[in-house]
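Lecture 7 notes: from sequence to structure.
We start with the chain below.
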Amino acid sequence: MMRLLHFSKYWIYIILIIIIQLIEINNYSYHLYYYNFYKPLSMYLGILTGLVSFSIGDILYLFFIFYVFYVLTTSVFYFTKARVKKVYLYYCFKKICHFSILFYCIFKLSWGVNYKNRIFENIIGNTSETYNESILNSGRIYIVKQLNLLRSQIPDSHILNLNFNKSIALAKHELQNTSIQNGACKIKKPILKLSSFPEVVNLFGFSGYFNPFTHEAQVRYNNPTLLAPLISVHELCHQLGFSSELETSCIALYISLHSQNKIIQYAALIDLYFYCIEETIYLNSKIIHNFKNKTKPSWLEIDKLIIDEKVTNDLKKTLAELKQQHTPLGNVIGNYIRKIYGFFLLLNNESNGLRSYNLMVGWFIKNYKQHF
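Predicted structure tokens for the same chain:
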């Protein structure tokens, strides 16, 4: 009986892997999965995790870290015993294989197959728009004009009173009430929580993250004030069913720019302004060579003739808040973590790795270049 159960377990793994592959390569299968499995799963997880204010996902991560530490320490102990070394080695190998396959299947079915979300293709479209420095400069000037216009319509008190809790509330409200695509982008139960380990997350260089097993979006409380709204919308868009960082960035920008809330629009354009600068730096080899002499503040000097004073102050404040978060240790650790994360993105068909975040600039240019 035990052998039969052991044998059937392998068949279950095989069947699950076949189902995952069918979902990933077939549009009809993906639509069935998205509407009949993913959306109900996300809704019920939202109801369950919404019962508590703390992050259940963070507790699971912590438990996993302690479990791995326990396994490693016990493994070292048993490997010192010559008589059980071979037996334990085989046992460990089996356990690792079972755990890896199970982890893969749960990750993929709970969220991972969304690395190519085909439900919103008409919104995202082709994200591989090519652009040069001239187009980027035109786009940046257009963004500055929109920033000037929006800032003139936003009372100073709304900017001064903006804080982390308000940013979360704005993002949740936006995803609950957005009317774009006839409400297809609405989330009935958006779950956005404080990260339980903001300093660790900052050390790793992340502004927020999404737990694929509990469907909780988490953000740091100490994100720059005017970047927090778009960061929050971005993490909630993962709950909508986007795994690709490029597609998530595009849909978050799309939702934010079509928002009825001017703070949401303004915050999105500030983030987009910085991304345009980073892409200009990336494309211009001479600037790359002299990167240390072409920081974001120097770009504010270049644009100072067209940026309103209030917008300039908001941008400088954002840069100052970003600078406060950088530490020598964080820069070293963050570089290694980003390399690992970039490799993870490459494994999941994001051919541009970490630059995938920046490439929402291409989507913006494609959809707004007629206004430049």
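Points to note: The first strand starts at residue 192 and ends at 194. Confidence is low (pLDDT under 50) at residues 286-294.
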